[in-house]
Design goal:
With 361 residues, the protein is α+β, with helices and mostly antiparallel strands. It has helices at 21-93, 99-106, 111-118, 130-201, 206-218, 353-360; strands at 249-250, 254-255, 259-262, 268-270, 275-283, 287-294, 299-308, 315-316, 321-325, 337-343. The protein is built from 6 helices and 10 strands; from the N terminus they run H-H-H-H-H-E-E-E-E-E-E-E-E-E-E-H.
């Protein structure tokens, strides 16, 4: 993804007028190469974060299920013990009645032994010796569920630590990338000023005019938005990092229905295509969000914004700034990012990664 330098209203005299157009062009190429390296590094860091986040959510779901199983088993134990007490009492009062419990009493020398032995009973769907074996199996299953819960819970703690580590690494990478991109943009602006100054000084020389025209051609668009592809632009400014996270698990049993495009806080967001801002609103999951419908009827959902500069009903052109990257909604505490969805014909969402990759890479 090539960096571009901002346009200047007038030719500025460079700080070092002995620079040549060739040197300015080399600086441009070096900066663009560095931005490409940063983009790949951000994609890799975003991948590590997304994988750790998915693992954390899966383990949390397993713990919740295990807790439920243990609670249900413990409830069965309580009910069974109450039934056992009732039947033991009945056996004392009516010696000729429940022979299953009576056998337990006769085979045990004291009352403490009776209680210890009958603690194995959990369910009493039928009478007979089988109740002891059933109780033992239920006890073992309950203990097994409890042990499994402890194991998975320990894994959750480790997964949260790993997730937090990757989140911190992603935040650090985003800050570092922004600083480097800002520095590269300044270098590009200086290179452009050098080229313009040299072209002005040597405008009567055909070679200088051609070199200046060539450089200006490379640096003639917005500094933050990507070049248009079939009339569309990347929805988030540079630097950014993302992977194909469609279908990744999300809390509450949900699956990811978009692409998370990580970028420094307040990075500008752009209208991906010509269209109209259908809605600017807030919701519990997406926080501050925008729905944009293009001229073909496709809808694009922007979520977790820090701010919105567009309003409902506003017509926009591809590349217009409509908001900034943030952490609103349920993204609080995560690295800043744009959650972006693509709804062809304003229908259900489809995986937006191929489109995002084509526009932003």
């Amino acid at each position: 993804m090539a960096l571009v330098a901002p346009a200047h209203p007038a030719v500025a005299r460079p700080a070092a007028p002995d620079r040549t157009l060739e040197q300015a062009g080399n600086r441009l190429n070096d900066a663009n190469t560095r931005v490409d390296d940063l983009t790949r590094a951000l994609d890799e860091t975003a991948s590590s974060y997304e994988q750790a986040n998915a693992h954390r959510i899966r383990l949390a779901d397993e713990v919740a299920a295990s807790v439920t199983r243990v609670a249900q088993a413990q409830a069965h134990v309580v009910v069974a013990e109450e039934e056992l007490v009732r039947r033991v009492t009945a056996a004392y009062k009516h010696p000729g009645g429940d022979m299953g419990v009576k056998a337990a009493l006769l085979d045990t020398p004291d009352a403490g032994g009776v209680l210890h032995r009958t603690a194995l009973f959990r369910r009493f769907a039928a009478r007979g010796v089988d109740q002891v074996d059933n109780a033992r199996r239920i006890t073992e299953m309950t203990n097994g569920d409890a042990r499994q819960e402890q194991i998975v819970a320990a894994g959750v703690t480790d997964s949260v630590d790993e997730w937090q580590r990757h989140a911190g690494a992603l935040r650090t990478a985003l800050r570092g990338a922004k600083n480097e991109v800002d520095a590269a943009a300044e270098n590009l602006a200086a290179a452009r000023a050098d080229a313009q100054w040299r072209a002005e000084e040597d405008r009567r020389a055909e070679a200088a005019r051609q070199a200046a025209a060539s450089l200006v051609t490379q640096t003639g668009s917005s500094p933050s938005s990507a070049p248009a592809v079939d009339g569309k632009v990347c929805p988030v400014g540079q630097p950014n990092g993302f992977i194909d996270s469609w279908g990744f698990p999300r809390p509450g049993g949900r699956s990811h229905q978009g692409v998370d495009m990580f970028a420094p806080y307040d990075t500008p967001l752009f209208a991906v295509a010509d269209g109209v801002i259908h809605r600017v609103y807030t919701n519990p999951l997406g926080g501050l969000a925008i729905n944009l419908i293009d001229t073909d009827g496709n809808m694009y959902y922007y979520a977790h914004l820090a701010s919105a500069s567009a309003v409902t009903g506003q017509e926009v052109r591809a590349g217009d700034t409509i908001g900034t990257v943030g952490t609103s909604g349920n993204a609080a505490g995560t690295p800043p990012h744009l959650h972006w969805q693509f709804h062809p014909d304003n229908g259900p969402p489809v995986n937006p990664y191929p489109l995002a990759y084509a526009l932003c890479r």
